[in-house]
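In this supplementary section we document a worked example of the pipeline. Step one takes a protein sequence of length 155 as its only input; no multiple sequence alignment statistics are reported here. Step two produces a three-dimensional model, which step three serialises into structure tokens for compact storage. The input and output of this example are shown verbatim.
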Amino acid sequence: MTGHDPERIPDPSRRPGVAFTLRPIGFVQHTPKKRMRVPKYFVPRKRTTLEFFQPYLPGLTGLFPGFELWIVTYHAPSGRIPTDAWQGGDGVPGVFATSLVERPNPIEFLRARIVDIEQEKGLLQVVGLDVEEGAAILDIRPATSPHHGLTKPGE
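The serialised model returned by step three reads:
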């Protein structure tokens, strides 16, 4: 057989037995309370505090207010098992076309802008983050293209 067969569904028994060890670099310390009815493309405007653990504080060097970040978090699953409805169909989008919390893996990839930084305390104040308080921070990265300079405006 050559090429891709769109009718073929992968055999779940052939999935590789892979284990991952994730070590949080900090946690979401404070986040604004969520509104009950959140618009489809809601972007929070209130500040969220991110606290980083001691060994990672030097990694905050070079960050500054106004800088935009991708923040990768892990949130504890609710314990609910998603039904087949999360797969989509019959006019309902699948989970990968939504921002539903119930996902195959409880990892979030979120964008935020730094408002204030206290590197010696390991604290970042950000806006634009829609995440639960206590969520583990797995990584942060500049939200820039590879060709964009990582310098403060005016330098």
